[in-house]
Every structure is written in C-alpha cells, then in structure tokens.
C-alpha cells in the first residue's frame, strides 16, 4: 500500500508541477507581449516626435536669410522675395505647434510656443520695415535664445532611451 500512495503522490506532484510550469509560461508570454507593445509604442512615438520637431525646424530656415539690420537696406525685389518666404511662417508654425502638442511632451510644447512668439515678433519687425536697430537686435537675440531652448528640450527627449 505504501508503494501505491507513493506512486499517487508522485503523479500528483508531477501534475501540479506541469500545471505550475504551464501557468508560469503563460504569465511570462503575456508579460513579454505587453513589453513588446510598450517598446513598439515608444518607438513609434519617438519617430513621430522626431518628424514633428524636424518639420518645425525646417519651417524656420527662411528666417536665416533675414537681414541683421533694417529691411530698408534691401532692394524692393529682395524684400519682396523674403516677404513671400517669411510671411507664412507664423501661420504654418501654429499648425506645427499643434502637432508638437499632440506628440508631447509639455516641455517641448512650451519651448515651441515661446519660439513661435519670438518668430511672430521678428517677422512683424521685418514686414513693418522697422528702422530701430535696437529692437531688431533684441528680437534676433530673443529668437536665438528661444531656438536654443527648443533644441535643448527636443534633444533631451530624443536622447532618452525609449523605455
């Protein structure tokens, strides 16, 4: 009778062991699938953020051609060419700001809002053909500071590991 009890106990332990191993495999597979989903989501978000940040920075390229002095130093043709390039930037910047707000994070959205405010100021001074060199210099300096802050915030986000 002792052998029968030992055989039944052994079989019971084997069944419990098999069920336990199956349960652990199931839990591990579920966790692995969840982790894979998180990693894939982080990668997609990172790609979307990168595209949004780069799109915003590419929008600013025509601002590099603005004169460092009064717009009156430009010929009428030069002014008109720059005006057509620069005038739509604030409106296009607003649409890109919305995309950046959707992608996040809030720190980059705030830096983008600040930079866009400085862009409005610079474009306004240019289009109004301001002759006040001090205002032009201050606007340009503020723009560069806001641009540096935006770049720093974006780099901080882009260099962090996804998970």
Q: What this model shows, in words?
A:
This protein is mostly helical and 163 residues long. The protein has one domain (45-159): Up-down Bundle (Four Helix Bundle (Hemerythrin (Met), subunit A)), CATH 1.20.120. It starts with a helix and ends with a helix. The protein has helices at 2-59, 76-86, 89-103, 106-127, 133-159. It has five helices and no strands.
Topology:
Elements lengths: L1 H58 L16 H11 L2 H15 L2 H22 L5 H27 L4
Helix pairs in contact: 1-3, 3-4, 4-5
Radius of gyration equals: 30 Å
Instruction: Name the CATH class.
Output: Mainly Alpha
CATH T-level topology: Four Helix Bundle (Hemerythrin (Met), subunit A)
Low-confidence stretches: none
Number of domains: 1
CATH architecture classification name: Up-down Bundle
Number of strands: 0
Largest sheet: none
Mean pLDDT: 84
**Terminal residue distance:** 58 Å
Tally of alpha and pi helices: 5
**Helical percentage:** over 70%
Q: What amount of the residues lies in strands?
A: under 5%
| Gross geometry | rod-shaped
Encode the helix/strand succession as letters: HHHHH
Derived from helix and strand composition plus strand pairing, the structural class reads mainly alpha
